[in-house]
């Protein structure tokens, strides 16, 4: 019996060792998987945040340059003073990384002398055009310098194929275009260690818009932007030291535009993240790597501690055969606690995934759908075989900038949130209201029976938004300019948005606080 009991004890010890080892390895594996999943989710969140920040900054610079082009085009007879007034609000603090903004005009070789004489009479008496080789030239007439560079009126941007390509395309499509990444002409004389890869934003200047006169092309407003200064702080702020990031121009041999290298990079291909960003007509590539700081946030290493603790406990259980049952129960309780912790972690991960989905497809300030979600729903609505029509209402607030400038961004945010609530409450359950950015909103009306339904919705929007908004006890007033576009056979989503946008500008030109049908 003793011999049998001894072997039974050995068997029990062996069983405890085997069972404890298996359980410890299982806990280690489960916790390591949990750590990997959490680290992956963090990288996804940082990747989405950085991508959204880059997209937001590009959009903001594009909107600023488009506003300047509209202001310049609105001048009856543009001169240097007009350009100076139109660009007076632009500076390096508002546009980090921008080197200068300029008004550029095209000219053939035969037109150089007449063009020079004309602009000398328009506030640039010392202007000297400096054509480079070729028959077509692109001369800087007026400019405002933001950094320590020197003014370059008279420079022929034909020496920069990247810039001329962007200007040519912007004129063809009547929209803002971003050049391939390259080195600005003004940077080629600085020391090599100070040179940066840069881009140029170009917007065509049209005169006569909004009047009975036909639109006439006058030139371009262009902005040089140094990539590292433009985006490095954004990448640092959004990455929070947890990721290293680089931004490259995919269509320009992956030329590096900007990069940040905080902390120590972790070599883990599973955590490498790549995202594409649409910048005008270009596609930029954002690549992100984790750092040790990100892994610290995931408590990576706890799985090793848990596994080691499990093995130590197993040895103790094997030695303490006299208290095997109580020790085993204690181990089971520990496993239950670990399992409960895993369940809680799964619940937290699901909550984080829901939050990430909300951030990816909704505006963080108003909770409305963002541009991406709106565009997807519009395409789905156009592809559906519904009996009714589809209409898009493009909405821009009148007077918002004055409130935002006079009473601060907090007041501006309050106005945007109140307007968002009014728009949301004024549509049907199946319709979509979105914020495109700034003070621009859009509404998708699906399955409308008649065009009059779109008119009714627009009238309700104009009336609702016009109501005073209480900001700290002081009423604020904004109104809306609404452009309406109704889907016709053969019309695509981009066409419908463009028509609604044009109708909105027509509403503004007609006096604001109204709606116009495209």
UniProtKB/TrEMBL annotation:
One of its GO terms (molecular function) is catalytic activity. SMART domains: CHASE, GGDEF. Keywords: Membrane, Transmembrane, Transmembrane helix. It comes from Paractinoplanes abujensis. The keyword Metal-binding does not apply. It holds the Pfam family CHASE. Gene3D superfamilies: 3.30.70.270, CHASE domain (3.30.450.350). GO terms for cellular component: membrane. This is Diguanylate cyclase (GGDEF)-like protein. The chain crosses the membrane at residues 7-28, 304-325. GO terms for biological process: signal transduction. Residues 388-518 form the GGDEF domain. SUPFAM superfamilies: Nucleotide cyclase (SSF55073). It is found in: Membrane. The keyword Translocase does not apply.
